[in-house]
Amino acid sequence: MKFMDVLRQARYRKKISLRQLAKLSGISVGSISLYELGKIEPTLRAANQLCKVLGTSITVGEGTDYTPVREFKKGGRKDASA
Predict the structure, then answer these.
(1) pLDDT of residue 82
(2) Intra-chain end-to-end CA distance of the chain, in Å
């Protein structure tokens, strides 16, 4: 299952709008919309925040093809925690 499907299904189950999810998660409506459309993948931090708000989880490698986007610190260095 793709992350976009997990996200959309969880949001529908909670019966909240994109705007409500954006407000609760601190992630922009535009970004969430792009995640749900499968246009971009969220960073691991964003995915975790969305899942936390929606009361669901993702397990990379077990039934999902989600590949987190690497996050970068200031100066362009990779964040090892991502």
Answers:
(1) 41
(2) 21
